[in-house]
Amino acid sequence: MSDFTSLPDLALRSNRASVIAASDESFEERENLINPWEPRFQEHTFGPKGQEYDGWETRRHRGPGDDWAIIRLGMSGVIRGVVVDTAWFKGNYPPHISVEACRAADYPSVEELSAAEWVNIVARSAIGGDAKHEFPVSEEHIFTHVRLNMYPDGGVARLRVHGEVVPDPALLTGLTVNLAALANGARAVACSNMFYSAPDNMLAPGLARNQAEGWETARRRDGGNDWATIRLAAQGFPEMIELDTTNLLFNAPGSARVVGIDHHGDEPLPPLDDPAWFELLPDTALQPDTPHRFRLPNVPRRPVTHVRVDIYPDGGIARLAILGTLTPAAERKVNYRWSTPCEE
User: Fold this and answer.
1) Could you tell me which CATH number the domain at 169-329 has?
2) What is the distance between the alpha carbons of residues 104 and 258, in angstroms, rounded to a whole number?
3) Bridge partners, 47 (sequence order)
4) How far apart are CA 322 and CA 317, in angstroms?
5) If one looks up domain 3-165 in CATH, what number appears?
6) With a cut of 70, which residues of the chain have pLDDT below it?
7) Which residues of 285-320 are buried (b: 16+ CB within 10 A; e: fewer)?
8) pLDDT tens-place string over residues 207-255
9) Is 304 in contact with 262 (CB distance < 8 Å)?
């Protein structure tokens, strides 16, 4: 996989994306395009319309025209790459595809999107069956929707749209928000272990449906402890921390500690013993299968850009939330980023 695939999937159903329209879905529903799991297949599962596939499949064209599907991204952002996966479609895949993107305000209808300015982010390209096709994207603009085009018809199992989240500042400024939310631009930048699942999972929208949808480490045998470092969506003042161990019945951490730092620039974060780090939540006992919420009334009102969550000794966290407000400097920065997307 290319480097861009480590970035969040802006088009994932569990990241609140949706397939809002398609030209045709005679064989398989358009919604399958953005399912979070890997495409599945079972032989000899024939329904009234033929073999069943875990993907989007259109009828055979007998005349002019091509098929398309429009996806509303769950998180707006700069797209760095697209994956078109034709898993299990071996004789019924489209020979060519292209991908377009647009930026639209608020919640436009399909009719309103037809008048939007669509940008070609993946040129018409030949693809094969039963394979993942990766296409890096160089456009530096913020997008809210993508359109997958098939020439002329066929089946695609999954569409992945990886990129950097850029939130609308209207949903952040002047409000108490989750500074650790993936949808607001937060990311896990380091961790001690992600044997079972990655720490970015803690930052995903909604509730974890099972323990695989959180962050879980292997069992430690060395006497140490596991940790994850999160770059917050923007510099802010933390006011409450949520550590959710829902679904973790026998592998929740025994306790956890959270520290923060205000760090800018491209230099690596200082070591944990550097006085720039300060405690937000002391080492606190956790219970299995429980959402824990801790107000921070005694923490000095200090700005934070990164937090480190230490769990003792190991285990899993379903969701992490850092509720707080943006600093005035952060509000200016997110407004500037939204209005001038080609600049950093």
Assistant:
1) 2.60.120.260
2) 38
3) 50
4) 14
5) 2.60.120.260
6) 1-2, 298-300, 341-344
7) ebebeeebeeebeebeeebbbbbbbbbbbbbbbbbb
8) 999 999 999 999 999 999 999 999 999 999 999 999 999 999 999 999 9
9) yes
Q: How far is CA 219 from the centre of its chain?
A: 26
185: closest CA among 196, 171, 198, 206?
171
Owner of token pair 């009719």: 111
What distances in angstroms separate CA 251 from CA 36, 199, 209, one per listed residue? 24, 15, 16
pLDDT tens for 285-304 read: 999 999 999 999 766 689 99
Residue ranges per domain, the chain?
Answer: 3-165, 169-329
Residue 290 CA, chain-centre distance (Å), reads 24
Does residue 230 contact residue 263 with C-beta atoms inside 8 Å? no
pLDDT for res 64? 86
